[in-house]
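Following up on my earlier thread - several people asked me to post the actual chain instead of describing it. Fair enough. Here it is, all 372 residues.
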Amino acid sequence: MKKYLEYKDEKSHKFWAIEVKDNSRTVTYGKVGSKGRSSTKTFDTAEAAQKDAEKMIKAKIKEGYKEGKTMNHQGSTFICGCAPFTDMVFFVKSLDEMTNKGVTNSSFFLWDEQIKDKDKRWMKYSTSVGWLALTINTIKMKGKDRITITLGKNGEYFELNPVTLNEETGVIQDAKFIRSSKVIENTLYACGMDGLVIKRKSLGNWDNITPTLEGQDTIFGFEDISGFSEDEIYAVGWKGEIWRYNGKKWFKINSPTTKNLNAITCAKNGVAYIVGDNGIMLQGRQDSWEILDTERHENLWDVCNYNGEVFVSTDFNILTLDKNNKLINESRFVNDDSPTTCHHLLLGDDGVVSMGGKDLFRYINKRWERVV
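Reply from S.P.:
Thanks for posting it. Predicted structure:
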């Protein structure tokens, strides 16, 4: 049994949630938008736990709490997302209960703060799938509706038009082991293992532009892709692999590292930044790359550049690159409230969104503030 309640007056807006599992009940409470605090109590029987929960629910309703319409994020995990703006985030979540049972699942959502009615800012789309979403992007062509494209490991896709609410699913032919995707000049590119690179042409229709693997003595794979233009695209991955595409042909770059590379961004300042395992970070362009001595040793998962600032994510921290090319822990959090989970950095037109399994933060006006 689960119940989610909210209380709102002129001074506060808080939530209270309870979940009963077997002979225990867990209460989570706090300010709406925060992760809240939790406490668990165990009883002799499941019946006793259920009875206690019902009693607490009645008491909360008497205090003025009502059924909450805000999305309850308890029991689910963020998988991936994209943010055209810091107040508009498309994202994918999985239900923890199903995942813990070994059932792969992905559901699709939108958070849109531009909607005046707060109760309608969180939207769940009707499609849920039995494959794990790995990457999602959005494209807005001039004079056309915005679309979002979500991809799974084996070429599964979910394409959405948020305006018409048209939802399409399918599988891209011969697209196995996808790892990441990026929009480059309004065209979506995806990359993956065995050097896979594909380019979207239309719904379910993709071109395979995978590099020729002649001379490769080991199996390699791409973890991420980015580009300054469609005539200058980079793909990075295992054992320090860096490849460059000029719109017609791929060239393997002499990499200064053999560490696995996890993410790349081609910044507006004309520099590409790459991050990877054991704190490795590179900067460069074309055939010239250098290692930055960032003084970090943990795995670096994502990187982006916004308004001249370079942000990097680990499992648990958001980092910034200082003037001495050192990665330091971000400290500019509203109310000193920082995330406990990180991983993805979603670059929008007006800022950055940090997404971890249980946290969603946005960077706007040089401050990080919690969304979830």
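The longest strand covers residues 76-85. That should answer part of your original question.
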